[in-house]
Design a protein that fits this description.
Low-confidence stretches: 1-15, 17-21
Shape: elongated
Structural class: mainly beta
Order of helices and strands: HHEEEEEEEEEE
Number of helices: 2
Largest sheet: 8 strands, antiparallel, barrel
Mean pLDDT: 85
Strand content: over 45%
Strand order of the largest sheet: 1-3-4-5-6-8-9-10
Length: about 220
């Protein structure tokens, strides 16, 4: 009964994901997941994002330099089998990228994009004795952009994603790994693979988020 309920909720998440009903419906599904089992625990993670854009058009592809931002994530850890959990959460994610002078413009450029992101990760734990557990995981995410800042040389402009010529909705896949100590302390790293084109009204060219992250956390 529990597994059928969990499966139904996950299907609901996928429907919301692909029809872009976005965060409201997804968040409702996550609330059901988080309350589905008594052993649910909760955690908080924070750290640094090293973010890039991958731009493609025609037969060419360009990856920007990495720009450093931050992330903060709260999540629930819901055990569904031996050493296996589902982790729905909500996250504040800094993404973007930068390019040195000469790549596209005469001055250096940097884009700082802030998102509210809803991930659902599937995590497997490998016990390592009394020290703790190694963990690996992956899962989809959906995100809404809330703030965009573009810097060219010494000039900065702050506005909405639409003002910057970007789509506010982003979606993709997360990959994560790390170590959880027996006292709940976490050391973790991850990679975010954006799958949606961020650019508006530019035919034949796509730009997608690529984010490597490292951080620490605590699971209560």
């Amino acid at each position: 009964m529990y597994f059928s309920k969990l499966y139904a909720i996950f299907v609901l998440y996928l429907i919301c994901f692909f029809t872009k009903r976005k965060l409201l419906s997804i968040a409702a599904a996550l609330c059901f997941i988080a309350g589905a089992k008594a052993q649910t625990s909760y955690g908080l993670k924070a750290g640094a994002n090293f973010a890039k854009f991958q731009v493609s058009g025609g037969n060419t592809s360009y990856t920007s330099d990495a720009a450093t931002f931050f992330y903060v994530t709260g999540y629930a850890d819901v055990p569904v089998a031996m050493n296996f959990s589902v982790q729905p959460g909500i996250s504040l994610q800094g993404k973007g990228g930068k390019a040195p002078a000469g790549d596209f413009t005469e001055v250096s450029t940097k884009d700082n994009l802030m998102y509210i992101e809803v991930p659902v990760n599937f995590v497997y734990y490998v016990p390592t004795g009394e020290a703790g557990k190694v963990f690996f995981g992956a899962g989809p995410y959906a995100a809404i952009g809330i703030h965009a800042k573009s810097t060219q040389g010494n000039l900065s402009e702050i506005g909405s994603f639409s003002d910057a010529g970007l789509k506010a909705f982003d979606a993709g896949l997360n990959f994560l790994a790390g170590f959880k100590l027996t006292n709940g302390f976490l050391i973790n790293g991850g990679y975010g693979l954006g799958l949606t084109n961020m650019l508006k009204d530019i035919d034949g060219v796509t730009s997608k988020n690529r984010v490597f992250s490292v951080g620490v956390g605590y699971q209560f």
